[in-house]
Structure formats: C-alpha cells, structure tokens
C-alpha cells in the first residue's frame, strides 16, 4: 500500500485546474468584444452619468488603474448608479454575434484531462482572484491561470498561481509561460496532457470535469 501511495504521488499531474480569462484570451481579440465593451463604458459615462466627453479617456484610465475596473472607480469617487443597469448597458449590448464557434479551441480544451473553471471576477483585485479560487475550491499552487493582461497576470502571481500570458510569445515578470495564441497551448505545454496517461495508470476511476463558475 505504501508503495502504491508513493507511486500515485509521483504520478500526480502538476495542475488540478486551468483558470481562463475570457476577453482576448478565450475570446479572440478579432471578435471586437473588448473594444466594444470599452466604448460602451465611455458612452455610459457620458450619456448616463453626464460626465464631460473630453474628460472620459483620462478619467477612465485613471479609475481603471487605481480601482481595478472603471465601474468600481466610478462608485468609489461618488457616482451612484445601479450595478445591474450598468452591466446591462455595458455588457448587455456587446456584439456577441461576432463570437463564432472555435472548433479548434473547443477540441483542444475538451481534450485536456484537467478540470476547467471560467470565473467572472473583477480583476486585477487579488481578492477577486482569491474569491474565484475559493468558489471553485482550488489550490493556487495547483492551478494554471490564462490571461492576456499583464497586470492581471501579476495579480495572479501574487496570490500564488502559475501563469500563462496569452497574446504574445514574450514572457513578462510574473508570467511562467507566454503564448502567442491560446491555440498554441498544446505545443507550449504538452505536459498538461500527460495526466491523460497517468489517469489511465494511476486513477482508473477519475474522469476530467468541466465546471463553469459565475461570481
Ligand atoms: Mg482579457
């Protein structure tokens, strides 16, 4: 039995879970969703909050940088609005029709013998990332985080995640891996699929699970 425990320990895959960002990571930059979201936020600030148009870009950048999201920043500096109304205005009108099925990505992800979790949280707050880990009951040391934003990668690293920067092959501080495209995942990290063999050998009853989480 002791030998068996040691054997299973040695065969344990490095990651239990992969944690993916959506915009510009799983959803391609070419879908235009992130750009449309940015424009909707600007329109909301002008049309719903009455902020002067000439001040929008600078204020938006400042709030995003200091409060993690423009929405959090607007609330923090005193604008009173309903969160649901904001989300409906900013996200409810996005051109989701631009998102086309990506059979290559789908089969790539489904072929991974690892649980996948896609939380919706307000990064780069470390609390938000910790909350996502808590919801999905994840050990950060055994979770691989995919993200296109350098600041979110660095926030992920601070809470102990291993990180993959998506959208460039240049690694930055805080990124353990860098991928030009999420489609390159198998070439860049073939070890993620190694547990497939180990599953057959060490965990005959264990099957990969897919768990969507919304926070
Ligand atoms: Mg993103």
TrEMBL record:
InterPro entries: HAD-like_sf, HAD-SF_hydro_IA, HAD_2, HAD_sf. SUPFAM superfamilies: HAD-like. NCBIfam families: HAD-SF-IA-v3. This is Uncharacterized protein. It comes from Hevea brasiliensis (Para rubber tree). The lineage of its organism: Eukaryota, Viridiplantae, Streptophyta, Embryophyta, Tracheophyta.
């Amino acid at each position: 039995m002791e030998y068996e425990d040691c054997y299973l320990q040695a065969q344990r895959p490095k990651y239990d879970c992969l944690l993916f960002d959506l915009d510009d990571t799983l959803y391609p930059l070419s879908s235009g969703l992130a750009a449309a979201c940015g424009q909707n936020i600007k329109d909301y600030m002008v049309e719903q909050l009455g902020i002067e148009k000439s001040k929008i870009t600078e204020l938006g950048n400042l709030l995003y940088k200091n409060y993690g999201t423009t929405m959090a920043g607007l609330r923090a500096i005193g604008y009173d609005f309903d969160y649901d109304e904001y989300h409906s205005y900013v996200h409810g009108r996005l051109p989701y029709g631009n998102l086309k099925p990506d059979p290559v990505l789908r089969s790539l992800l489904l072929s991974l013998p690892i649980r996948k979790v896609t939380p919706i949280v307000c990064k780069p707050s470390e609390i938000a990332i910790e909350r996502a880990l808590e919801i999905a009951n994840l050990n950060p040391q055994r979770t691989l985080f995919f993200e296109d934003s350098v600041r979110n990668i660095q926030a992920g690293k601070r809470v102990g995640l291993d990180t993959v920067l998506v959208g460039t092959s240049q690694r930055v501080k805080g990124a353990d891996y860098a991928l030009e495209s999420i489609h390159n995942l198998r070439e860049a990290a073939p070890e993620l699929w190694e547990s497939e063999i180990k599953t057959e050998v060490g965990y005959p009853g264990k099957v990969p699970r897919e768990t969507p989480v919304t926070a």
